[in-house]
Amino acid sequence: MKDEETIFQYLKKVKRKLRINKSIKSLLIFASIGAVLSALIMGYSKLFPFYYAVPAALIAAGALVVTGIFYVLFKKISNKSAAKVLDAAIGNEKISTAVEYMKSEGTIVKKQRSDAAAALRGYGSIAVDKLKLFDKKTAILSLILLVLIAGNVALTFVKTAAVKTAEENHDSKVQAKVIKEEVKATIEKLADIQKNNDNTFNEQELAALSELQKSLEMTQKELSKVKNSKMLADARNHTAMKAEELQKMLNDIANGKMEGSKDPDDENNESEDEEDKENKEEKQQEKQKKLADAQNQLGNLAVNNGGKKLASANPNAGDPSGKNGNSGKNGNNENGEDGKNGENGNSGNGNSGNGNSENGNSGNGNSGNGNSENGNSENGNSGNGNSENGNSGNGNSENGNSENGNGNGDGNGDGDGNGDGDGNGDGNGNGDGNGNGDGNGNGNGDGNGNGNGNSGSGKGNGTGVYGEDDATDFVAVTEDMDIAGKSNGNTYDSDYYKGQNGLVFNGEKVPANQVIEEYADKAISGVESGKYPAEKADVIKKYFEDMQ
Amino acid sequence: MDRIDELKELALKCKGEISKEIIGQEEVVEGVLLGMFTGGNILLHGMPGLGKTRLVQTVSNVFDLNFKRIQFTPDLMPADITGTNVIERTPNGTELKFRKGPVFANIVLADEINRATPKTQSALLEAMQEHTVSIGNETYALPKPFFVLATENPIDLAGTYSLPEAQMDRFMLMIDVKFPDKEQLGKIVKLTERIGEENVKAEGAKKVMGADELLECIKAIGEIPVSKDVLDYVVSLVCKTHEKNPLIREGASPRAAQSLIRAGRARAFLNGRLNVSFEDIKSISFPVLRHRIILSFDAISEGKSADDVIGEILKLES
User: Fold this and answer.
1) With contact defined as beta carbons under 8 Å apart, do A397 and A362 qualify?
2) Average pLDDT over every residue of B87-100
3) Residue A297 and residue A313: Cα distance in Å, rounded?
4) Is pLDDT of B279 > 90?
5) Which of A67, A525, B107, B123 has its CA 20 to 30 A from that of A179?
6) Which member of A92, A104, A109 has the closest CB to residue B273?
7) Lowest mean pLDDT across A460-469, B127-136, B145-154, B210-219
8) What's the domain count of chain A?
9) Does the distance separating the beta carbons of A100 and B224 come in below 8 Å?
């Protein structure tokens, strides 16, 4: 064999072994660096909140291992490196010199090459065998890697305050995202309403809806910035407050009470004829229908974040004010229900204490007044009561059944048709329900017990589909009462008086100071919880201090 | 066996032949041979009576070369070295004829070169460098091969003129001739005084190769390949002498790197190899560098020698 062939043959053998040896070492080194990086990331996460520490550590380690694999695949072993390995065994740089001068043809150079080849024939195999795939260095690197991996695994189980904080922060972000999605749904709904407006809403109302949308978009931004539980709590607080305010705005729009719009209940609209009034009524119902989902969403948004859901003007809902209610007049409460009333809301005023609407139940059912003839408040009691269950309303009217109808005992009524629950106590009495005719809604909490509750009127708010809008005119009295009453400052000497939204029934008499105190407490707690703008805090406090 | 192998064998034989007359002093013998096989000049640094002259005589016998000894004294003139023009009576009258000086030999032993004046020293140094002698308008070539083995007496420095560093640089190697140990001294005395039967019958060193063969060896040695790694090693060694070092005032010149390569090749050849190794360079670093680096006052005050400094540099470069 020629000298060059001999030399290359041995070089090839050495290169193969070198490649394996170096590959193992390189991979071990890269893996060790990856393990060190992972340990640093894990260590960092034990001191500073970092939720994704484990995946980040795994990615870092994995990236370095992959880099190592690529490095090994593309790294070439040169003839020079292989020659050095052979020289280490044979000595005196014979092979390195021969490899370097492989292409030269000088006499001395050729002779030197021959000498190198002769040396390889004699000692080359020994030199190749001497080269180990797994040498001491590889063993040490393996040990180091094992220690690092063990360290990383151990770190995973260490729980520090920072780890807990990271978990909490992550949960907060997740929750904020959920709320953000809810806000987004409402924004989309409002956008849809504006986009598909077919003259249902006027310019002011559209502008208001646009403002609503922008306000919600600001809320979205705030939620996007949530990083920890404190920020989440603040964002939820603000979301709830905003949702409550926006609900009011939507209600106003639904009720046609936007500035510039004519109050549909305004008795001075005498210039309008019956047809105009009917058109207006239809438009109003149309508005309420369109805004129903958005109102519901805002209500849920408020409730989910610790706020309140206001009764909406949703046709199904029954107008808490009862104003809409259709009511009972038609009586069919097909749907029946009444809405629940808020605890207060019982229509203490009652309902139909006057009686029951024929059809229907006083939604509040308390009927003490009764039950509708038809209906039973099975639950509902009459009595003043409230049905044990409190449903009032179940009573179904003959026609109607409010099968659902109820209000739950608490007054809430979730029930299907009812107002969701709320109604109660707060009197919201919603009516979401279905109010139909139902007198639902009454009892809104706001009024509690007031007369809004109409149910006495049997009107049931609720825009009932069938309802007529003269429910307010309808008063069922069993006694000859002077409903006008006389006013004596803040008190009335009549059991009933005509309020803005209908009849107001005297409820339990409470000293004014007590009321003022209660209001003051609520206002101050609202200031302290950040419900009101900071700049108004002093004004509010001073106001109530002056009153007390 | 080809010619290169023959020359290698002859070179190895020269060492053996010289050791017949020179006891011990392996480093000195090797250094002298390195000088011979590279055409370089050697500076022998040692006390009188250590066999320097005997060594040069033996070397000249082994290589069958013309040998001249010049004893440098303070009154030695340049013309005493190079030769001069003299007036000679001829049948036609008188004419100037150039009489060659002792420098016209293959091997010149310049004994105690530090005793002559700088002017005389420079005459020899010019011959060493140029391998020519200039007299008036004439330039005379020196014989080939031409080697100068100069000696320096480290004692008796009063009235001497130490070779300037710039001139020292012209010597390829500076070899320290050390006092032999007891055993070696015994053998030297026995041999030189012919004590013992074996010494009485002992033959002197014989001729191994002639001038032509020596020149062939010099040419072959000049072609020995040097790998890039070895070259880089040589370069970094020399550069290291110029890095900030409190013990070195001035580092070695580029001639040091050239000498390292030439001497490295010669050493490889003398060891039967045709490539220069790191070991060759490390081995000849001391004789090549010790007279080329100028030690600082700190080194001298600490009692450090040039060899100590070179040893530290070699450790760093390993």
Assistant:
1) no
2) 85
3) 13
4) yes
5) A525
6) A92
7) A460-469
8) 4
9) no
